Amino acid sequence: MSVYLSRAIRKLVIARAGHRCEYCRILEYLSSFDYHIDHIISIQHGGLDTLNNLALSCAPCNWKKGSNISTLLELEGALIPLFNPRTQDWFDHFEAKKGVLIPRTRIGEATIKLLELNQPNKIEERFEMTLTGFYP
Q1: Which of 12, 69, 83, 97 has the most other CB atoms within 10 Å of its CB?
Q2: Is the Cβ–Cβ distance between 96 and 135 less than 8 Å?
Q3: Of the candidates 126, 133, 128, which has an alpha carbon nearest to the alpha carbon of residue 23?
């Protein structure tokens, strides 16, 4: 397993995502952040460099997610898996209202918490995109 991904693989991941972060759904060309190819299940957890394990991610989402695949919502609670853009539909887990992401499921709630998706700058970006018809 390699951390090198070919240009062809990168182009496929970007095109499949529609040039949009697959976690927060902010469009790449409207964002002030760089976009990364994320391993949904990190290599350290046994994830592979295959298309079904790769997602387009803005830098803030990628930095917050890191190698995490789950999180706790309550200190003594069960681990909740994070949203997986290859096996789950974004709209099943999240809805957006005026730029704020509202969880529809525990997975959505866990992902919003860990990736800090409702930071003021992210809300503002999504709200501006909503006003112009580019979000969600």
Answers
A1: 83
A2: yes
A3: 126
DSSP of 37-60: EEESS-GGGT--SSGGGEEEEEHH
Q: What is the pLDDT along the chain (136 residues), one digit of tens a residue?
A: 446 899 999 999 999 999 999 999 999 998 888 899 999 999 999 999 999 999 999 999 999 999 999 999 998 899 999 999 999 999 999 999 999 999 999 999 999 999 999 999 999 999 999 999 999 8
Going along the chain, which residue ranges are E strands? 35-39, 54-58, 70-72, 79-81, 94-97, 100-103
> What global pTM score does this model have?
0.93
H-run or E-run covering 126 = helix 120-131
